[in-house]
Amino acid sequence: MQTTTASLKVASAAATGRYRWRVVDIIVASVIGVASGLVFWGWDQAWTPLSAPLEALAPGLGALLGGGWLFAGVLGGLIIRKPGAALYTEVLAAVVSAIVGTQWGILTLLSGVVQGLGAEIVFALFLYANYKLYVAMLAGAGAGLALAINDLIVSYPGSDTPFIVIYTGSSILSGIVLAGVLSWLAMRGLARTGALSRFAAGREASVRV
C-alpha cells in the first residue's frame, strides 16, 4: 500500500513538473508571440489585395487566407507543450500586431483570444501529450473554426447561409494548412537545427536522428 501511494506521488509530481512553465518556456513563447505579431501585421497589409480576387470568385472565399493569423498559437503549442502556450502566443501576437498598427484595431485582441482558445482546446483534449501532425492539423482547424465564428458574429452579422458555409469552410481549411501543417513543419525544422534542444520537440528530433 505504501509503495502504491509513493508511486502515485511520484507520478503526480512528474505530471505537475511536465505542466509547469519554466523561465525558458516563457522566454521562447514570448519570442514566438512577438515575431508572429510582426508577421500578423505584414499579413494585415497583404489581406486586401490578396483577398479581393478570391472574394470575386465567391463571397467568403477570402477566409482561405485566415490561417496567416492563426499559426502563432499552433506553433507555440507545438514547441512549448504546456497548458496555456497556444493561447499565450496567439494573444501576444495579436497584441503586438495591434500595437504596431492594424486596420481592425482593438478587435484584433478579441480575435487573438478566441483563435488562441480554438487551438488550446485541441491540445488540451489530447492532454498536452500528443503533438503529431494530425494533432497540429486539428489545432489549426480549431483555430480556424474559432476565427470563423468570431468574424461571423463581429464582422459579418446577418450573413446568408452560402456565405457562412464558404467562410467557415475556408477558415477551417486555411487553419489546417497554414496554421497546422506549416507550423508542424516549422517546429520540425527548428528542432533539427538544435534550437529546441531544451524542449521535448528538440529531444524527439534528436532521437529520430
Question: Strand fraction band?
Answer: under 5%
Mean pLDDT equals 89
> Could you estimate the helical fraction of the residues in percent?
over 70%
**Low-confidence blocks of residues:** 2-14
Which series of helices and strands comes N to C? HHHHHHHH
Q: Measure the end-to-end span.
A: 42 Å
Please give the largest β-sheet.
Answer: none
Number of domains: 1
What's a quick, concise take on this entry?
By secondary structure, the chain is mostly helical. It contains eight helices and no strands.
Entry keywords:
ABC transporter permease, disordered N terminus, globular, 78% helix, 209 residues, 0% strand, single chain, mainly alpha, transmembrane, 8 helices
Q: What are the SSEs and their pairings?
A:
Blueprint: H1 2-19, H2 23-57, H3 71-80, H4 85-100, H5 107-125, H6 133-154, H7 161-193, H8 200-208
Helix pairs in contact: 2-3, 2-4, 3-4, 3-5, 3-6, 3-7, 4-5, 5-6, 6-7, 7-8
Descriptive notes:
The chain has helices at residues 2-19, 23-57, 71-80, 85-100, 107-125, 133-154, 161-193, 200-208. The longest helix has 35 residues, at 23-57. It is built from 8 helices and no strands. It is mainly alpha-helical and 209 residues long. The protein starts with a helix and ends with a helix. The chain is globular. The protein has one domain (21-208).
